[in-house]
Amino acid sequence: MMKKILIFIIVPFLFIGCNKEKTESLFGVLPEERMAERLEELQSKLLESPSGWKATLNTGTSSSKGAYNFYIDFNDDNSCKMQGDLSSATATDWHNSTYRIIWAMNASILFDTFTYITMLQEPSATYGGTAPHGYRSDIEFEYIRSTTDSIFLKGKKYQHDLVLTKVTTNAEASLDAGEFAAKIQEVVNFFAENTNAYFETGDGVKYAVAIDRIAKTISITWLDNQENVHSRTSGFAYSLNGIDIFQPISFNGTWLTRIDFDNDDVKMVSLSGSYEVENNAIPILPITTLFAANGAFNAIVVEGPNLPPGITSEFNTVWQNNINFYAANSATLEYMRFSLVNSTTARLSVGFRTQGAVYISQAEYSYTYVGNVIKLSNPPTSTNGNYNNGWLQAAMKNYFIGAEFTLDYVVSSNPDIVNIGGLYRTDNPNSFFYGKLAKL
């Protein structure tokens, strides 16, 4: 009887023992071997391009900060050199730093000393980011996959894509000669001199092209043959050829991928061909075709306490007095937004921060919109407590109550300030509220 019991006890352990080796080799290799292979794969891939890589990184959140290009050459001693399109200096001078290939649930690259990519993490607005997160950019990127000429990585914290593409020996020589910064300036000059840039594809439609250098975005806008307005926006980064569109724009059955600049020869490039970019004497689309409750834009917005620079309006005094009023009451202005909520209701919203919290002073009006003239009701149809309790100066309130405005574009003396709309008082065209055209 005892022997039978011992047999029953021993046999299961024999089966367990027999299956142990099978479990370890179920996936062909041990986990630590797979880790080593993955780390070696990424390291080898980074060293595969003798002239280095163009690394394109998108940044930001829903309020995108656009994309950036970095030219990086990796060495096998874990050092690397880099140029980037953040400034003229970063697009001219090579910066030497170090990197590591590490395992953090997957093979990853970590830039462990200061690089130009690190500048995007600066929590203040020093390099144009938004406090306290900068551009919401990473310095550690997970290895996703690779192809013959590209490596695809993703930021560990913010999950933004970093795409590396091989560059040629000619590209490296151009970078050594400072041609990256020169190309960026060529792009800037073109759009400063050609404020109504467009291209045609042969279908009788002019496609307006605009870049926002501050937000690093590119927009394509057009009016089709049925008078319908279309608009597409993506982040962009400067390159040795001109502009790379980070997320190619779907367009008439193809994809717009970049704009090539070769002195006076500027071409929008798609997967199926290229189109010459020219300049129109006037804006391609009247603002009235874009601005409506259900339009491409339905709001004029000022973010923060500063109006867009390079613009003179009698409204500036009303604005500054309201800023001073907030300062005297230990508050700061966060934003001011005029929007068309629907076909009959317009809204003025002013956000202000005090005692660590943001509050809203708000009024709504009924309105008419005929041609390019918007007329607001007197009195407003509704107001909230902060509006009624004096958190908006009387002069600012009176600027909108019962007012009649002519809607039009506003041009700044600063070529970086684009897509500005204005409400010009019909009784005084020298006085107009203005801000960024937006869709709320």
UniProtKB/TrEMBL annotation:
<protein>
    <submittedName>
        <fullName>DUF4302 domain-containing protein</fullName>
    </submittedName>
</protein>
<dbReference type="InterPro" id="IPR025396">
    <property type="entry name" value="DUF4302"/>
</dbReference>
<dbReference type="Pfam" id="PF14135">
    <property type="entry name" value="DUF4302"/>
</dbReference>
